[in-house]
Amino acid sequence: MQPQVTEKKPLLNVKGLKKYFPVKTPLGRTVEHVKAVNDVSFKLFEGETYGLVGESGCGKSTTGRTILGLDNPTEGELLYKDQNILDDPKKSFVKLKKDFQMVFQDPFSSLNPRQRIGSILEEPLIIHNIASKQKRMDMVMEILHKVGLSSDNYYHYPHEFSGGQRQRIGIARALIINPKIIICDEPVSALDVSTQSQIINLMQELQKEYKLTYLFIAHDISVVRHISDRIGVMYLGKIVEEAETEDLISNPSHPYSQALLSAVPLPEPSIKKERIILKGDIPSPLNPPSGCFFHTRCPIAEDICSEKVPVRKEIRPNHFVSCHLVD
C-alpha cells in the first residue's frame, strides 16, 4: 500500500485577491474603478522567498500593501495559518501586525527625519508592549549589530546615513519584533548594484537565522532570481505565470515572461540573444482589454486571446501559466 503524501500547508494563502480604487466625479459619485489587483492567488510557505515581478504599474506593490492591511481589499481571502484575516479585518490586522512587517522601497521617506535611530527602532517595541525600557535599548543595540551597523548609530538621525545604511535600518525595524512574514517592496531598487548585493546577502543571512518568510516585490527579474525560491510574474493586476525560480528562468512559457527575461543583460557581452520588443504600452487598469489582458501586446496572439479569459493551468510540476497558446 502506497503511503499517503500530505501536501505542505502554506503559511499564507492568498485567494482571489482584488483591490479596486474608485474613480469619482467632483460631486463624489463613483463612475469607474481602477482594477489595480484583479484576482491574484498564490501561496507563501514558511521559510521561503516568493518573488513577485512585473513592470511598473502592474499592481505588485498594491498586492503587498493589501496583504499588510495598508489598503482595504475589495474581495478575496487571506488565509494565515488557516484563518481568514478578512473575516474580521479590523480585529485580525491589529492582532497580526506583529507577524507581518514591511520593508519599503524608499528607506529615507519611510524613516522619521526628526527621530533618532534608537527611537525609531524602539517604537515597534513600545507599540506592542515588549520589554522594559532598558531591555528595549539592549534589543535595539543587538539588532543594529545584526544588520551590520554599530551601537553608536543609536544616537544618529536618518540623514546621517547612506541609502544602503538606511535600508539596513528599515530591515532592522521590520525584524525587531520577530515577525513571521516580511513584505519587501522594491527594497533594493533605489540602491547601486554593489549595495544591492550587500542588502540581498544580508536578507538571506537573516532569513536563515530567524526562519523568515519573504514576499519580495521587484520589477527587475535579474534581482528577484538571486533571492527567490519561486517567482510569480504579474501583468495588469494578474499573475500570468508562476514556477520555481530555476524552472521559470530556464523555461519561461508565457510570452510576457519571455519578453521580461529577454531584456536581462548577459554577463558576457560576446553572447548574443534575441530581444523581444513588446508593442504599445500597458493598457489602463481603468478599462482592461477583453479576454487575455496581454493580447494587445502579445507577439503571438490569436483570435481566441481577445475573446476568452485564459484559465490557469499546470504545464509542468509546480509550473502554472495563464495562456491559451501554451500547452
Automatic annotation (TrEMBL):
GO biological process, one term: peptide transport
Domain ABC transporter: 12-261
CDD domains named among the record's database cross-references: ABC_NikE_OppD_transporters
InterPro entries, per database record: AAA+_ATPase, ABC_transp_ATP-bind, ABC_transporter-like_ATP-bd, ABC_transporter-like_CS, Oligopep_ABC_C, P-loop_NTPase
Top-rank lineage group of the source organism: Bacteria
Transmembrane segments: none
Single GO term (MF): ATP binding
Keywords in alphabetical order: ATP-binding, Nucleotide-binding, Transport
Family: Belongs to the ABC transporter superfamily.
UniProt-recorded name of the protein: Peptide/nickel transport system ATP-binding protein/oligopeptide transport system ATP-binding protein
Species this chain originates from: Lentibacillus persicus
